[in-house]
Amino acid sequence: MPTLVNPAASNPISGPILGIESSCDETAAAVLDADGGVLAEALLSQQREHAPFGGVVPEIAARTHLAHLPSLVQDVTARAGITLRDLAAVAATAGPGLIGGLIVGSQFAKGIAIAHRLPFVAVNHLEAHALTARLPELAGDAAAVAFPYLLLLVSGGHSQCVAVDGVGRYRRLGTTVDDAAGEAFDKVGKLLGLGWPGGPALERLAAGGDPRRYSFPRPMLGREGCDFSFSGLKTAAAQAVARLPQGALPAQTAADLAAGFQAAVTDVLANRVTHAMRMMRGTASLLVAAGGVAANQAIRAALERVASAEGFRLLAPPARLCTDNAVMVAWAGLERLRLGLVDGIDFAPRPRWPLDSLTPQGTA
Ligand code: KG4
Ligand code: ZN
Questions:
Q1: Distance 284 CA to ligand 2 centre (A)
Q2: What CA–CA distance (Å, rounded) separates 295 from 290?
Q3: Is any atom of ligand 1 closer than 6 Å to the C-beta of 295?
Q4: Residue 84 CB burial class (10 angstroms; 0-12, 13-18, ≥19)
Q5: What is the pLDDT of residues 238-293, one digit of tens each?
Q6: What's the pLDDT band for 356 if we cut at 50, 70, 90?
Q7: Tens digit of each residue's pLDDT (9 = 90 or more) over 145-155
């Protein structure tokens, strides 16, 4: 069912909005007021459930979302001082992601929408990351983060440079040709015995390492455009580990490997984003970083440097809003609702749902 443009809903929003996130391994709910102020947010990571398997197990994820969502929603509505009856709308991530979790979250949201006769907004998870920077608590006022801007989205499943022209209007400038940046962090983290997910632990380990001791390749560096490649880096890390004497890695060696790997990823991201900024020069002057990998301080510092060298301002949300959360889902729901974009209750979740397919009919 296509997105419905509901003229009645393009009026100012009359009350708070509930957002639900369940596309991967975070179960999250949030309530925002009609202006986008965060009234309450809650998140349960499923890290403990999936860690023994070294990655997300889709069936376990779906069951865990189902077990936790009712109490999370109860918790955020209570802390926001509202009941479901007070809501103006309900939004849920409907893709892309793991189909089981998407079904759980969106069916839950639809149930609330039906019971309380509310508009339902099916949110694209990538759009939620893309619009987070416009949240009033970050932007001050959405007008301060005006379209168009450049988005670097680097998460466990995605690495993309995207021109954000408006709500629902995206042009992908570049993407990974193999692994996502977060996936590379996770795989190298596993090699270094850091457990899963590897990103945050690898960053901590790298802080005590020498990035020059092991030199890693910089895939795509200097290449035209802004595509990425990370799988060669993972192979290089595996080879470096294989060359070492068998047995547990000495702590300093592990730290040096982590620092070398992180420096390579940082250089690659900085270079590809520099190209992307040049592709948008004259039309945009804001670089927004989003996704879990954008929580990495070394990467943020490098982005800050290249942004200012290209005459761009960097806006990188705090870590809690870079990694998956429901505030971004509620906010994307609000942005769509303001434009009168609501969805039918028969909207089917989409495990694959590219950003550039979102442009609403008649608004391109
Ligand atoms: O956006 P996100 O929470 O979920 C997805 O949509 O994928 O991103 C999770 C990814 C994981 O691969 C994780 O290892 C990585 O982001 N990550 C980090 C850091 N924090 C999370 N990577 C590098 N440094 C970090 N501090
Ligand atoms: Zn995400």
A1: 24
A2: 8
A3: yes
A4: middle
A5: 999 999 998 889 999 999 999 999 999 999 999 999 999 999 999 999 999 999 99
A6: confident
A7: 999 999 999 99
For residue 126, give Cα distances in angstroms to 23, 55, 164, 214, 342: 11, 21, 11, 34, 17
Q: Tokens 């592709």 sit at which residue?
A: 279
- Cα(325)–Cα(221) distance, integer angstroms: 32
Q: Which of 133, 140, 87, 166 is nearest to 336 (CA)?
A: 166
Distances (CA, A) of 245 to 59, 188, 191, 202: 38, 18, 14, 21
- Closest-lying ligand to the alpha carbon of 289? 1
Ligand nearest to the CA of 129: 2
Beta bridge partners of 314: 287
Q: Are 220 and 263 in contact (CB under 8 A)?
A: no
Report d(CA 8, CA 292) in Å as an integer.
36
Q: How many residues does the chain have?
A: 364
- Residue 311 in tokens: 């005459």
Phi, psi angles (nearest 5°) of residue 34: -65, -20
Q: How far is CA 327 from CA 21, 33, 39, 182, 323, in A?
A: 9, 11, 10, 21, 11
Residue 278's CB is within 10 A of a number of other CB atoms, namely 11
Backbone phi, psi, residue 337, to 5°: -60, -40
